[in-house]
């Protein structure tokens, strides 16, 4: 009788100690009784190419990628999904049976699925969206909103040049506004997305005045530590529909798990609790 090798997956980055992915995938492996392992691995930039060569030989089906390797892995991939190419970064790698390295970015899928699960009646098509931030997460959010045919994206970033660069990359539907002007456009937008790191535990809060916000506006914070950020607290008091960032993390993980372990996992309250522990 031929024994099948134990399937392995993991997360690579530097560091990986902060990553919630081992808890997340570990919960799914236990829940579905899959005899696999998900392992955090700190990898130096100079060792990245060697790791891509060695990991499949050790039985790895794929890995998630976190800072600082999200862009560099694209240079090592044989196949790059359209959305990873558009965003310019990958978070999910698969070592295919034909020996090819496939790079994908599932942050946009996670962002949209999280909103759809929490606010199924909201549509990106209805009104412009305000996106705060112009880093890696903002690129995934902008790509996803454009894919959903939002009429306009108002983009504000502390460093305006980064927002201008994002507009140059993604094109005409983006209107860059000054960071200080963001509170004045709130009555025109159907959604406010915080894709800055403001509001994270240990950082300043996002001091966006919500005086002009319309009740019912969707407010989504990508930050998930804490789960209910100060922005979401105030938005809730102003009658907005609020969506925290944890669901995005959970939903972006699903395609990788399905590819590596061959099972489409559920995203439910048990998973949320396991990841928050
Ligand atoms: P990043 O590339 O480092 O970008 C950070 C962004 O935050 C930039 O736009 C930066 O503006 C802005 N920022 C930082 N400090 C600021 C301050 N004091 N005032 C104003 N703006 C400030 O990081 P990222 O990868 O895009 O991640 C951003 C956030 O999203 C993080 O909190 C991350 O944890 C979260 N995230 C969540 C998920 C999820 O699954 N929920 C996924 C990805 C990311 P400048 O350009 O001016 O520096």
Description:
36% of the residues lie in helices and 18% in strands. The protein is an alpha/beta fold. β8, α7 and β9 (174-177) form a beta-alpha-beta unit. The chain starts with 7 loop residues before the first strand and ends with a helix. The chain has 10 helices and 12 strands. The longest helix has 16 residues, at 246-261. A 6-stranded mixed sheet has the order 2-1-3-5-6-4, with helices on both faces. The structure holds NADP nicotinamide-adenine-dinucleotide phosphate. NADP nicotinamide-adenine-dinucleotide phosphate binds at residues 107, 110, 133-138, 157-159, 162, 195-198, 200, 204, 222-224, 245, 248-249, 252.
Largest sheet: 6 strands, mixed
Pairing-aware structural class of the strands and helices? alpha/beta
User: For the residues shown, what is the average pLDDT?
Assistant: 96
Strand content: 15-25%
Q: What is the molecular shape? A: globular
| Strands, count | 12
Helix tally?
A: 10
Based on the structure, what is the oligomeric state of the protein chains?
Answer: single chain
Write down the secondary-structure element order: EHEHEHEHEEHEHEHEEEHEHH
Order of strands, widest sheet = 2-1-3-5-6-4
Tell me the Rg in angstroms: 19 Å
Distance between the termini: 40 Å
Low-pLDDT regions? none
Query: What bound compounds does this protein have?
Result: NADP nicotinamide-adenine-dinucleotide phosphate
Summarize the amount of helix as a percent range: 25-40%
């Amino acid at each position: 009788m031929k024994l099948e090798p134990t399937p392995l997956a993991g997360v690579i980055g530097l560091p990986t100690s902060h990553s919630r992915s081992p808890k997340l995938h570990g919960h799914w492996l236990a829940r579905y009784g899959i005899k696999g392992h998900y392992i955090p691995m700190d990898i130096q930039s100079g060792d990245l190419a060697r790791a891509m060569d060695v990991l499949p030989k050790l039985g790895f089906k794929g890995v998630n990628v976190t800072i600082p390797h999200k862009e560099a892995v694209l240079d090592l991939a044989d196949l790059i999904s359209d959305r990873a190419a558009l965003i310019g970064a990958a978070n999910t790698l698969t070592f295919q049976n034909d020996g090819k390295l496939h790079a994908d970015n599932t942050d946009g899928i996670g962002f949209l699925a999280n909103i759809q699960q929490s606010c199924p009646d909201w549509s990106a098509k209805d009104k412009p969206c305000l996106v705060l931030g112009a880093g890696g997460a903002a690129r995934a959010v902008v790509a996803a909103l454009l894919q959903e045919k939002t009429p306009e994206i108002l983009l504000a970033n502390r460093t305006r040049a980064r927002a201008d660069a994002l507009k140059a990359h993604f094109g005409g539907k983006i209107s860059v506004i000054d960071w200080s002007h963001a509170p004045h456009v709130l009555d025109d937008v159907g959604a406010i997305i915080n894709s800055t790191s403001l509001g994270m535990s240990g950082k300043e809060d996002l001091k966006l005045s919500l005086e002009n916000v319309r009740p019912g506006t969707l407010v989504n914070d990508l930050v998930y530590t804490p789960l209910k950020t100060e922005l979401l607290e105030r938005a809730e008091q102003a009658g907005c529909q609020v969506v925290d960032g944890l669901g995005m993390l959970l939903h972006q993980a699903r395609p990788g798990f399905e590819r590596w372990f061959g099972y489409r996992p559920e995203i439910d309250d048990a998973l949320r609790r396991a990841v928050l522990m």
